[in-house]
Write a structure and sequence with these properties.
With 329 residues, the chain is an alpha/beta fold. Helices cover 33% and strands 23% of the residues. It has a six-stranded parallel beta sheet, with helices on both faces. The chain has a six-stranded mixed beta sheet with strand order 10-9-11-14-13-12. Strands 3-4 form a two-stranded antiparallel sheet. The longest helix is centred in the middle third of the chain and has 17 residues.
Amino acid sequence: MKVAVVGATGMVGSVMLKVLAERNFPITELVLVASPKSIGKTITFKGNLYTIVSMEDAIAAKPDVALFSAGGSTSLEWAPKFAEAGITVIDNSSAWRMDASKKLIVPEINGSLLGLADKIIANPNCSTIQMVMVLNPLHAAFGIKRLVISTYQSVTGTGVKALQQMENERNGVLGEMAYKYPIDKNAIPQIDVFTNNGYTKEEMKMVNETKKILQDDSLAITATCVRIPVMGGHSESVNVEFKNAFELDNVRAILANEAGVVLQDDIENALYPMPLTAMDKNEVFVGRIRRDESTENALNMWIVADNLRKGAATNAIQIAEYLLAKNLL
């Protein structure tokens, strides 16, 4: 396979390269793309040096698949040009997620929707991916009625600049600010810009993307997304109200047998998901499962995943693996 990574010098792009190597994706030729200022620089992959090239050169190289993680405006401009050249684009930005003509894919859930005609495939938002991985089997079993979501999201979701801001603040160094406020020893209840309804774009992504992935517009969903000073991954407190009755043991059994999900739910031994232990792992971790005693047919759970892995790079590469396995590349 001839593979292009667009945005190869960014935080997600560098993790894409790690995951491609770890999973031994069958690369015969690797094309690395970044911003114009990075053209000509080199990156090492599996012991070999690769020179960063321009978008035009990448298209001319005719890769089979291009993994995009270079921001929404870049994707809107360049993904169609790659697609027109017959290259399958898997895009990690928000550019195409809610486009009715594009598939929004978590392979374990809806990979079967993909076909040869899908040349631009959207990778969902990081906070959405980890949540739907847990919700999908429960929705099939009990029918979800309503979701109340609170997120506690890593600075790595913003990027290198935010991580540097946090490190600078911890070390007493003045530097460039990714956020309007200090992030260390703080919690910022704003991720992305505010929309007309008072919710942020991140919160509305969770609402709209979840409905699209689970193929159910009847779901009632509300979310509050918060940035906190951690770097290992995103955490989510999710309150789920079902249409039908459930037993907690059945819920745990379903999740324990779900591919890509790891059940960590042993309160007697203080075992539950945390960003520190989810970091650098490809799975989604779920625990603190307990009945919501304030209403019928509802429960609370705690979901954690490395947002740069399953929340971004790993999911994109799993889409490519699915396409390859189904002879769609």
